Amino acid sequence: MADKTPAGRFITLEGGEGAGKSTNLEYIRTQLESAGIPVVVTREPGGTQLSEQIRKLLLDTGNTEMSSDAELLLMFAARAQHLKQFILPALQQGTWVLCDRFTDATYAYQGGGRGIDNERIAILEEWVQQGFQPDITILFDLPVEVGLDRASNRGQLDRFEQEQQLFFERVRAAYLARAEQQPQRFRIIDADQPLDNVQSQLDGVMTQLLSKTGSIE
Length: 217
Ligand code: TMP
What we know:
alpha/beta; globular; 8 helices; binds thymidine-5'-phosphate; 12% strand; disordered C terminus
């Protein structure tokens, strides 16, 4: 990437369907703003005009013929644009970026869910990110059936939400495996708890993140 030591921090939120990322993303944003930190919120796939158009293709239930490889490449096409146009410029200006999903979602959904080899995903990751990684990744973990039950109350399901429980079991297992492989970057939140409990778990993560002696320094 152009600048390997950006001033802002890159925080990603991950988890299966119905894990409560959106609600808690707002909570984290508020916490950071109260601490006087400039922060922008974004999401993947999406975050720029072009990437949001790619998102529409990816989530469209009419695209029943989309191959796993096409899906994978579209995820990274959206990400390449998002990084260049939005994420890296913000970080270089010293703004923190709070992103709803990033490349761990690709390992979880296209790797775990669809069964694409991690090695193939890693090739695209290196191509697009050139070593760039989140500073910290907060994984909202909960049993698949609980998440699907929550997500089903939201109305129409997108192309991913229409998948079966086994798919999401593989997604969850892949997320947890990544968290286990990279404990220095991941923080796991038990999302199968009432909101105030989830937020007090997040408070612990934020305190660590904001402290100068935090382990992500
Ligand atoms: P969202 O529901 O969190 O907005 O994310 C949209 C869907 O896209 C979600 O079902 C997960 C999926 N997704 C992938 O399959 N791979 C990826 O790399 C990303 C970022 C999202």
